[in-house]
Amino acid sequence: MRVVVDLTKCEGYAQCAFLAPEAFRMVGDEALMFDPAPPDELQDKVLRAAAACPVQALQVDMADLPTPPPRAAVADGDDRLRREGRIVIVGASLAGLKAAEQLRADGFAGTLTMIGDEALEPYDRPPLSKQVQTGWAASADTSLPRRRDIGADWKLGVAATGLDLERNVVSLADGQEVGFDRLLIATGVRARPWFVPEEAGLDGVFTIRTRADAAGLRERLAAGPRRVLVIGSGFTGSEMASVCAELDIPVTVAEAGPAPLAGALGGVIGRIAAGIMREHGVDLRTEVRVESLQGEDGKLRRAVLSDGTTIEVDVAVVALGGIRNVEWLHDSGLAVGVWGVACDAGCRAFDANGLVTDDVFVAGDVARQPQPMFGYQFLAMEHWGNSVTQAEVAAHNMISTKTERWPHLEVSAFWSLQFGNNIKSVGVPPIADQIAITQGSVEKRQFVAAYGYKGRVVGAVSWNQGKWLDFYQQLIEQAAPFPPPYHLTDPPADGTPVPAEFPAMTYPGRDATVVVTGHDPSERRATLVRAARRR
Known about the structure:
The structure is a single chain. By secondary structure, the protein is an alpha/beta fold. Strand 15 (251-255), helix 9 and strand 16 (283-286) form a beta-alpha-beta unit. Helix 4 runs parallel beside helix 10.
């Protein structure tokens, strides 16, 4: 039995924890932890919990999805694609699986091929830095629930190495070629490794992205290391610091910026996060870089920091963000780069000339898409909920006529559980220029902050107050003025807007990425330029 909870929907009502406490539990006031693979004897309890969830955030293997009704008749071309077409999905993780399920739900009866570089069925990644590290769930038990039989030809453990758009063929590392009528790129991101290979190879240095990463790190934490060093304090780094504090393991966090979470939520919230870390005994060092990792006999022993100190550590967790998996597309002619694969609001990939391709679609962490609600800026959203909704839109559009296609207009949302606090956000806070506490109390660690950009609401973050975020999502969708001109429940002592204090944004388009060739206007083409690799 497999379970997953869409924690962007969960509002902490705790019905599941009352009905199946062996599988669900509350942490702090409203944060939910769940067992992704509860024993079969709990099936009745878990199904009752899923049915009782007020926001229907629980998904269980093939338990909560009715058989789709027959679709209305469509044009011959699309009907033929639905009955006999060949669809290939490269990326066998969350986005890939959700797209496959949506294809079958929409009546696709053709051949479906799933390609993944890991030799594992799709699994859920958020528990790897939470439930798995505290020992509440095993890394091997994080497989995603199957909400329907997708009837796919699985090619796992073999990476895609190339894409030929002239022949509509994907090349694989084992020499195979897979033809397609429609292709979905959902290759996601991988963890950014420590930049010195010899140091990254020391026994005790970890990234955390895959099941193998999580299992190895859990084994080391269970052994009781003298001290753990976490490099970077974004969401993954902060969650790992929280895990160490919960396990009573001494932990140092080295953050090159001014505060934890500052890149995602700004300096104002970052200072609050820093205070909470230190309250829980974390040795937080801001504006400090790790100069080197040093070992003895191949094992990590110490780290040298830019503040002149050397600390003795047995484990280092490198949490420096991700690298989008696009190298296999470099010679494909698609618009790809370090920022991902560019696509339109319907998830159709752009080629290097900025033209949409009707046969190639993109979804998940690897996609960079214009957001109509935010001035059509091209944004990449590396969040669980975005991967799900974007994959469903892409799958629907792959087999639909022009008039049936959907735009992907989902407001981005994410969550994090740290030090007993449930942190949730909607919108795109990093584009904001101002922030205001609009509800609750920072001192009590129960508040909501709204983000504004040029006088309109563009985001919100809640700290143990997730039930209010649906209201803020509506404000974002309606382009409501900032600060919100309403008398809100539980107003703060001071709701004056202040600068949000985000780091200066870097734009991939600031430097030239293409050259234009040809002389006649009808022959001119854009060719992507690959910059020399920087150390």
